[in-house]
Amino acid sequence: MEESKGKEFIQMIRALWNEQKKREVLYLEALKKDGMGPFRRMLSQGHVSAVLFQKEIRAVYDYFKCFLNDKELADQNQITSHTSLQLLENANGREEVASCLKKIEAATIQLYKSLRHYLDREPEAQRLMDEHLTRTSEFYEMLCKLESGSQQRSYGLTAAA
Asked: What domain range is 75 assigned to?
């Protein structure tokens, strides 16, 4: 990997790792909220996937680090995580929690898509990132359904009134 492309790649992989760290914290915080009911299962799956994806991203990062000079991955997005955490803490009900988490998933999906062209010559790393993208997209779709399902119910109640 040429040096300039390598630096871009490192920035992208670090951003992706930080985004997964943010997912981990937010899903864990969402699990602590009252009234999540059956939504808890999906929240715990989201938390576990974020932890697993961080480990796998670190393995890809460490592989490429052999060829590049860079620092270790670290949780450098504490301010961003804090802002997202505050939004989640202020969320009331499953629908608002789903809306908050959906924004994080959308940002994560964009990072995975941006990272793809850096992995053209690394089919194993690309396969792994594609699996992450697929699973993250599934979470995004579930959150969309939860968010829109609640909005449809509230519109139905308004129309009936």
From this structure: 3-160
